[in-house]
Amino acid sequence: MHFLAEDENGNISGMISRIKENITNKFISIEHYGWIQNGEEITEGEEVEGMKGALENCTITLKGIQTELKVDTDTFLEMKDFFLNTWPKALEKLKSICEGNSKVDK
């Protein structure tokens, strides 16, 4: 799985990850193990050692007529600010989609 974005110079970069565990409609665990920089996959060496094995775990629980989504991360320190900024936006988009709002801003 590739999480990609275009940087300010138009280069495509991101993380390389895999689904470590998936229990349909209950739990998913995503394990990060590499980077994509300027289209090149990097999975070995000093650049990835700090992030190898970092997990993002999502647990889905039904609570009456509502659904709770809990996200736990043990991500690498270099990405802490990124995730603190990105996860709330992503979860707001997901909430909007789940509630049937057909207009979702990028």
Summarize the structure.
This protein has helices at residues 46-49, 80-98; strands spanning 2-6, 12-23, 27-37, 40-42, 54-63, 66-73. The protein has 106 residues and is of the alpha+beta class. The protein has one domain (2-98).
Characteristic terms for this protein:
106 residues; alpha+beta; 6-stranded antiparallel beta sheet; 2 helices; 6 strands; 46% strand
What is Rg?
15 Å
- What characteristic shape results from the CA principal axes? globular
Spatial gap, N to C terminus: 20 Å
The mean pLDDT is 87
Overall tally of structural domains: 1
Q: Secondary-structure element order, as H and E?
A: EEEEHEEH
How many helix segments? 2
Taking pLDDT < 50 over at least 5 consecutive residues as the criterion, the unreliable ranges are: none
| Overall helicity | 10-25%
* Multimerization state: single chain
* Beta-strand segment tally: 6
The fraction of residues in strands falls at over 45%
**Helix/strand/pairing class, anyone?**
alpha+beta
Biggest sheet architecture = 6 strands, antiparallel
What does this molecule look like?
With 106 residues, the chain is α+β, with helices and mostly antiparallel strands. The protein has one domain. 22% of the residues lie in helices and 46% in strands. It has 2 helices and 6 strands. Strands 1, 2, 3, 4, 5 and 6 form a 6-stranded antiparallel β-sheet that branches. The longest helix has 19 residues. The protein starts with a strand and ends in an 8-residue tail after the last helix. 4% of the residues are buried. The model has no long low-confidence stretch (mean pLDDT 87).
